[in-house]
Write a structure and sequence with these properties.
Helix content: 25-40%
Distance between the termini: 11 Å
Radius of gyration: 19 Å
Order of helices and strands: EEEHEEEEHEHEHEHEHEHEHHEHE
Length: 325
């Protein structure tokens, strides 16, 4: 088969289309003929040489795919050759074939095309596990997501709105904010022009956000604590703004707030299977019912992964960028 490889880490041009050995499904895995692959920030960081795959995972980038099951490994039940699926991966999605643990498979939601389904596994698993399983967002609470125009952001807006939360977003520029509004966002903050803490306090009467989903990290840590309501919960899932920052523990204690940092890729298989099962139970009916939808900015051929990474680095997209075989 062919796959996108990274012989030497670097810029987008470090992604190289190459012929590689076909994968073989191990115990509990299925082999998927890939139709489409999702492009994620984690892929960019891996390409740069700062995010190695977990031990035993494929060395090729790609954390989610859609396609058709081509073969079942030993011990797999409940799935059949030919089934159309999407899958959460630890790597290897930028390829014509990939192996995935059966516990990380999802059926293509009713009414959705197979290509668009590739946009779902990583964002739905990330948002559901962090916003609902970790932070426990409840109806009537105020939720803030940074990077509202991203794949994570567009899904977080929809899911939070679907459960009855008041949704605030930060994004760069009015075009992205308008797209967020169309998805259900109530409070729109242009981080290039506005102070998100000030704007959030203005709209909430000084109360702040009950839950914040943050992709920035160190740069926003102090502001996120300021923006939290009493008993608020901050979940950090990205480090685009750096790794290290000072934390005012007095502010944290005063607000009786909680800060959680999580990642998805390196979790044990059992944990990822539990998250995928929760997504299938809670999110898939919302998609099938039309209350939540995939937001796809564009699709490109797999051979053009270099272009896809440039799009992500320019942050000109809204929603997901997909690669098709």
């Amino acid at each position: 088969m062919h796959a996108i490889t990274i012989p030497v880490p670097g810029g987008p041009e470090a992604l190289v289309w190459a012929e590689v050995p076909d994968p073989v499904p191990a115990e509990g895995e299925v082999l998927i003929d890939v139709v489409a692959s999702g492009v994620n920030r984690a892929d960019v960081v891996q390409r740069q040489g700062f995010y190695d795959p977990p031990p035993g995972a494929s060395p090729y980038p790609g954390l989610e795919v859609s396609g058709r099951i081509a073969a079942l490994g030993p011990g797999v039940s409940g799935w059949s050759v030919g089934d159309e699926v999407c899958a959460l991966l630890a790597g290897g999605g930028y390829a014509e074939k990939v192996c995935a643990p059966a516990g990380q498979l999802l059926p293509v939601p009713d009414g959705m095309d197979l290509v668009s389904a590739a946009s779902l596994p990583e964002v739905t698993a990330t948002v559901w596990s962090n916003v609902f399983m970790v932070a426990g967002l409840r109806p009537g609470e105020t939720f803030l997501v940074h990077g509202g125009g991203s794949g994570i952001g567009t899904m977080a807006v929809q899911l939070a709105k679907a459960v009855g939360a008041r949704v605030a977003v930060t994004a760069g520029g009015q075009d992205k904010l308008e797209r967020c509004r169309e998805l259900g966002a109530d409070i729109l903050i242009d981080y290039r022009q506005q102070d998100f803490v000030e704007e959030l306090h203005k709209v909430t009467g000084g109360i702040g956000a009950d839950v914040i989903l943050d992709i920035i990290g160190a740069k926003y840590l102090a502001q996120n604590i300021d923006a939290l309501a009493v008993n608020g919960r901050l979940t950090i899932i990205g480090l685009q703004g750096g790794r290290k920052a000072e934390l005012d523990l007095a502010a944290l204690l005063t607000k009786r707030a909680a800060v959680a940092g999580t990642s998805l890729r390196a979790r044990p298989l059992a944990e990822k299977a539990a998250i995928v099962a929760a997504v299938r139970e809670h999110v898939w009916p919302l998609i099938a019912g039309g209350r939540v939808r995939a937001v796809v900015d564009r699709t490109l051929p797999l051979r053009e992964a270099v272009t896809a990474h440039r799009v992500l680095e320019e942050s000109s997209h809204v929603g997901k960028v997909l690669l098709t075989t």
